[in-house]
Amino acid sequence: MASTATNAKRDYYEVLQVTRTATDQEIKSSYRKLALQFHPDRNPDNKDAEEKFKECSEAYGVLSDSEKRAAYDRFGHAGLGGNGGSGGFDPNMVDFSEIFTDMFGMGDLFGRGRGRSRAQRGADLREDITLEFEQAVFGIETESRVRRHETCETCHGSGAAPGKAPVSCRKCGGRGQERFQQGFFSVSRTCGTCGGLGQVITDPCAGCRGQGAVVRERTIAVKVPAGVEDGTRIRYNGQGEAGTHGGPAGDLYIVLHVKEHKFFEREGKDLFCTVPVSFAQAALGTDIMIPTLEGEHKLHIPEGTQTGTQIKLRGKGVPVLNGHGKGDIFVEIKVQTPSKLNKRQRELLQELEAGASVENSPEKSLMSKMKDMFS
Questions:
Q1: What is the pLDDT of residue 80?
Q2: Pair 299, 313: CB distance under 8 Å
Q3: How confident is the model at residue 355 (pLDDT cuts 50, 70, 90)?
Q4: Counting Cβ atoms within 10 Å, is residue 250 exposed (0-12), middle (13-18) or buried (19+)?
């Protein structure tokens, strides 16, 4: 008795695991999940997975098309003619760009068949300015020379000669993508002629040679606020490279470098310095004149000041950047011991030593004293 082999195709709704009343979005979401599950790249050398991938792709190709879905709903596979029969799956019927871009990030491989956006933001630029210490503290208005691409005034950035316009790329038909067959995929890549724009310039502008921009050098006014530090960046919106095809310009960043001061060291808004005094000045006390960033200031050295003593000058430091008030100056006193004495000086010091001797027993360090406090 002869046997009859059946090649009956499964119901497309069953293949995609959706109901006949499923919305387009539900069909699309279900196909994405199944395509990801059975994709050949995830199932190498698995013929069963490959067949299931083809089956769900074929089902999606029909149910995602409103006309084909309507015919299928009325007449089943017979209503699709050749496309519904065994081996009749057309890989071009499915827009793989829409499905696989989200799943695999393969936007260029599975191109959408249209040119990429022409408008592009211009690049950011950086210029460096070196400041004196005082200029950083009090602020300054200066200038910076910047070389940048600016939109061509002749063609207004189009790159085409006056009265002309870019034309559709013949190689890709204005889509910006070249499509070719890769197995059962319809694969596309960026057009090498138009760079994905879908248009080419046949009559370039003489002013910019078709680039849409020209290089110019400009003088930019730079206002440095009081209180900036080394490495501070100032951004000027829209002062960078010109955008292309109507895109916005980039930004300009001015990076500040501050020279060291010969007297002060800076930490934020505060200044630190060391002032030497003689043994007699420290012992008897005195008033001395020291420099500040605003001029000389009288500093009182109290009687009996020890070396390492720190005296604070309130409000004599650096202005708070974009704020109010100033920091302080911290003056460390360093008592200098004379390295050479004449006979009279030696006699006087010996008389002083006889009447004001110091017990030279060792003392615990500050760290040891702190340990004792918590033990």
A1: 76
A2: yes
A3: low
A4: buried
